[in-house]
């Protein structure tokens, strides 16, 4: 079975390229704990900037508080950049990984 997969990939070199491109496109906007902002401020920021439902924003805020970070959104880099900048503009710590 492994040999068949190898032969398939050798006969279809674009398959590896498509797989690699898909991996690169799937990134996460991550909000990090900063020990500065209030729960209400972070929740409000996630609702306004990231367009989360209030319940989602609250859950994310608790995860950030207890775990140190939370995946807020998933998508390609161009989709996530405006959300990251919006969070940074509000003084929150956010990265795209």
Brief description of this entry?
The chain is α+β, with helices and mostly antiparallel strands and 97 residues long. It has a domain at 34-97. The protein has helices at 2-11, 13-25, 39-50, 54-67, 77-89; strands spanning 27-32, 69-75, 93-96.
Question: Can you walk me through this structure?
Answer:
- The protein is α+β, with helices and mostly antiparallel strands.
- It has a domain at 34-97.
- 64% of the residues lie in helices and 18% in strands.
- It is built from 5 helices and 3 strands.
- The longest helix is centred in the middle third of the chain and has 14 residues, at 54-67.
- Residues 1-5 have low confidence and may be disordered.
- The N- and C-terminal alpha carbons lie at a distance of 34 Å
Low-confidence stretches: 1-5
Strand order of the largest sheet: 2-1-3
- Beta-strand content bin: 15-25%
DSSP helical segment count: 5
Shape summary: globular
């Amino acid at each position: 079975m492994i040999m068949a997969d190898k032969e398939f990939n050798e006969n279809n070199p674009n398959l590896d390229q498509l797989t690699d491109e898909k991996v690169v496109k799937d990134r996460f906007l991550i909000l990090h704990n900063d020990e500065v902002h209030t729960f209400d401020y972070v929740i409000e920021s996630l609702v306004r900037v990231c367009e989360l439902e209030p319940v989602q924003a609250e859950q994310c805020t608790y995860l950030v508080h207890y775990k140190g970070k939370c995946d807020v959104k998933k998508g390609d880099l161009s989709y996530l950049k405006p959300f990251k900048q919006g969070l940074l503009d509000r003084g929150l710590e956010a990265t795209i990984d």
